[in-house]
Design brief:
Elements (H helix, E strand, L loop, with lengths): L7 H17 L5 H8 L3 H13 L3 E4 L4 E4 L1 H11 L6 H14 L2 E8 L2 E8 L14 E2 L5 H7 L4 H8 L17 H14 L2 E4 L6 E8 L6 E8 H28 L8
Antiparallel strand pairs: 1-2, 3-4, 3-8, 4-5, 6-7, 7-8
Helix pairs in contact: 1-3, 2-3, 5-9
C-alpha cells in the first residue's frame, strides 16, 4: 500500500480501518469509521480508497457504506488450508461427535497460539466458539492445556509469556496464577489428559488429549455442558482416548492438510 503517508504509521492506520470495517459489518460509512478511529475524514476516505483498490474492501452502493473485500477470503483460505486436517481425520471427529453427543475439536500449535484446526458441532452440542484458524486461550481450555503440558520451559514461556505473570481471567474459575497453572500442567502430564470446568466459559466443560502429528503438536478435545460432564466424565474420557489413537495415525502420516473441497 502506498500513499497513506508516514510509512509504518500509515500502514497501521490502514490496518485499523480494515479491522474496524470487519467489526462494524457491511454498510459502515466513512464518517462512522473516521469518528471511531479518530481520523480526519479525508484521511479515512484516502485509506478506504487504497484498501478498495487493493481488494481488501468493497464499496457497497446499496448500503451506502463499506464491507470486507474478497481478497480477505483468500488470506483466510491460505492460512486455514495449512491447518485443516485431511478427510479421514475429519471423519474421526465427526464419528466421535455422533457417538458421544459432544462437540469435538482438533487444535494445533501455530507459532505461539493454540488454533482450532477443525471442529464438529451442532445446535445441541456447541463448541468453544471458535472457527478454524481462530486461536483459543491456551491456559483456559482443555486442548490448550493438553498442548502446554508437552512444551519445554522455553516454549511454554513463548506461549504464555515469561515469568509468573497473571493470565487473563475469562470466568471466575480461570486459572490466572501461573504457579497454579504449572501445577495443573503437572497433573496433565501425569494423567495424560487435560480437564477444564467453566474455565473458558460458564456452564461449559471439556477434556482433551495430546495427539502427535507430522506438522507439530495437536490435541483432540470434547466440549459439553458442565452438567453433562459431571454425569459422563469417564465415558467421555474413554471415547477421546480411543479416538486419539486412529487420529494420531492419520495425522502422523499426512502432511499439513488441505481444506475440504
Amino acid at each position: 500500500m502506498t500513499g497513506t503517508g508516514g510509512g509504518g504509521a500509515g500502514l497501521r492506520r490502514a490496518l485499523r480501518v480494515l479491522e474496524a470495517v470487519a467489526e462494524a459489518g457491511d454498510g459502515v460509512t466513512a464518517k462512522a469509521l473516521a469518528r471511531r478511529l479518530d481520523l480526519p475524514l479525508p484521511t479515512a476516505y484516502r485509506l478506504l480508497g487504497i484498501l478498495i483498490e487493493e481488494g481488501y474492501l468493497v464499496r457497497l452502493h446499496a448500503e451506502r457504506g463499506y464491507g470486507l473485500g474478497y481478497r480477505v477470503v483468500g488470506l483466510y483460505r491460505g492460512m486455514t488450508e495449512r491447518i485443516v486436517p485431511a478427510a479421514p481425520a475429519r471423519q474421526i471427529l465427526a464419528d466421535l461427535h455422533e457417538r458421544v453427543g459432544a462437540a469435538t475439536v482438533l487444535v494445533v500449535l501455530r507459532a505461539s497460539d493454540v488454533v482450532v484446526a477443525h471442529s464438529e458441532t451442532c445446535a445441541a452440542h456447541p463448541g468453544p466458539g471458535a472457527v478454524p484458524g481462530e486461536p483459543l486461550p491456551a491456559h483456559a481450555t482443555a486442548p490448550g492445556k493438553a498442548l502446554l503440558a508437552g512444551l519445554d520451559a522455553g516454549r511454554l514461556a513463548e506461549v504464555l509469556g515469561p515469568g509468573p505473570g497473571t493470565l487473563a481471567a475469562l470466568t471466575p474459575h480461570t486459572l490466572t496464577d501461573r504457579r497454579m497453572l504449572d501445577r495443573d500442567l503437572m497433573r496433565v502430564r501425569s494423567a495424560r489428559i487435560a480437564v477444564e470446568v467453566e474455565e473458558h466459559a460458564r456452564g461449559r466443560a471439556g477434556l482433551a488429549v495430546a495427539v502427535p502429528a507430522a506438522s507439530g503438536p495437536a490435541a483432540l478435545a470434547v466440549v459439553v455442558s458442565r452438567a453433562d460432564f459431571a454425569d459422563r466424565r469417564w465415558e467421555l474420557e474413554r471415547a477421546v482416548r480411543d479416538a486419539a489413537e486412529p487420529l494420531a495415525r492419520h495425522l502422523a502420516a499426512s502432511a499439513p492438510v488441505t481444506a475440504p473441497g
